[in-house]
Specification:
The complex is a heterodimer of chains A (116) and B (113). Chain A is mainly beta and 116 residues long. Chain A has no helices and 11 strands. In chain A, a hairpin with a 6-residue loop joins strand 4 and strand 5. With 113 residues, chain B is mainly beta. In chain B, the strands form 2 sheets. In chain B, strands 2, 4, 5, 9, 10 and 11 form a 6-stranded mixed beta sheet that branches. A 5-stranded antiparallel beta sheet of chain B has the order 1-3-8-7-6, with no helix packed on it.
């Protein structure tokens, strides 16, 4: 699979577990994003990384911890989640926007997370 | 912050009809408006976008219009086909040094043969 890939595609975890979601982009982009998609809610931006630096934390609880070791990889570390955290977690990437330009974001297939 | 509202939440049309989805945004500084299509179980995919220096953009059966004064933009699909059935999301973004897309709640489009 090319473009933006995510693993695992499905994850079931208990509230005391620790797990990590992985995203990898093969598009040569330098900005990466985590989104949460819940039923009947808009896509919610969680984190933004530009050139490996976190530039946005959209008031996300500390039980979600992102990591961006390089421009091609993005992780979301999960610990002590709640059932309401069950959702589809989408990764996206783009070229870093310029001062006057916006760039298309390309999404991965997502990880369907169920917290029991 | 930016707020994007999208209507309708569901839209059913007959094959060959046109479909229109409307979005409004709150922040006049927003200058980029993409539309994404998400088929069941698949990732959102960009289908068309428009920037604030343009009033209309067309790509085959799909067009987007932008009214900056009224702060609304619309997606128009002509000659709809069953494969157009999906959830469509609008979004708005402004230059803030990084790109922060604010999405609408989505429109489920069903095209019946």
């Amino acid at each position: 699979e090319t473009g933006v890939t995510q693993t695992p595609r499905h994850l079931v975890m208990g509230m005391t577990n620790k797990k990590s979601l992985k995203c990898e982009q093969h598009l040569g982009h330098n900005a990466m994003y985590w989104y949460k998609q819940s039923a009947k809610k808009p896509l919610e931006l969680m984190f933004v990384y530009n050139f490996k630096e976190q530039t946005e934390n959209n008031s996300v609880p500390s039980r979600f911890s992102p990591e961006c070791p390089n421009s091609s990889h993005l992780f979301l570390h999960l610990h002590t989640l709640q059932p309401e955290d069950s959702a589809l977690y989408l990764c996206a990437s783009s070229q870093a926007p310029g001062r006057t330009t916006q760039e298309t974001q390309y999404f991965g297939p997502g990880t369907r997370l169920l917290v029991l | 912050g930016e707020n994007v509202e999208q209507h309708p939440s569901t839209l059913s049309v007959q094959e060959g009809d046109s479909a229109v989805i409307k979005c409004t945004y709150s922040d006049s500084a927003s200058n980029y408006f993409p539309w994404y299509k998400q088929e069941l179980g698949k990732r959102p995919q960009l289908i068309i976008d428009i920037r604030s220096n343009v009033g209309e953009k067309k790509d085959q059966r799909i067009a987007v219009t932008l009214n900056k004064t009224a702060k609304h933009f619309s997606l128009h699909i002509t000659e709809t086909q069953p494969e157009d059935s999906a959830v469509y999301f609008c979004a708005a973004s402004m230059n803030t040094g990084f790109q922060k897309l604010v999405f609408g709640t989505g429109t489920r489009l069903l095209v019946s043969p």
